[in-house]
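Task: sequence design from structure.
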């Protein structure tokens, strides 16, 4: 889980910086504000595509999306068990 967080912390800001840099080089007539706006939309689109893909994988892996637990999840790691330990 931490490895995924680390890669996401590098990938999305890196995609933003790279797309801003590339747009400034490819379209010198555009203002900095235009390049930043397009770069933000590129990153948002990438996040949307990846979130949709992960949702599709989860739906295909579960028979009953509401009640099925994740692969390898035990009672000790479920959200229900974690919330009951807090009370």
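Answer:
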């Amino acid at each position: 889980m931490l490895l995924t967080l680390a890669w996401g912390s590098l990938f999305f800001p890196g995609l933003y910086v790279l797309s801003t840099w590339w747009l400034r080089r490819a379209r010198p007539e555009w203002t900095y504000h235009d390049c930043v706006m397009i770069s933000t939309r590129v990153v948002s689109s990438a996040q949307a595509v990846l979130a949709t893909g992960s949702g599709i994988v989860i739906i295909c892996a579960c028979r009953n999306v509401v009640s099925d637990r994740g692969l390898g999840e035990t009672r000790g790691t479920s959200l229900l068990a974690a919330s009951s330990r807090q009370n």
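The CA atoms of residues 20 and 39 lie 6 Å apart.
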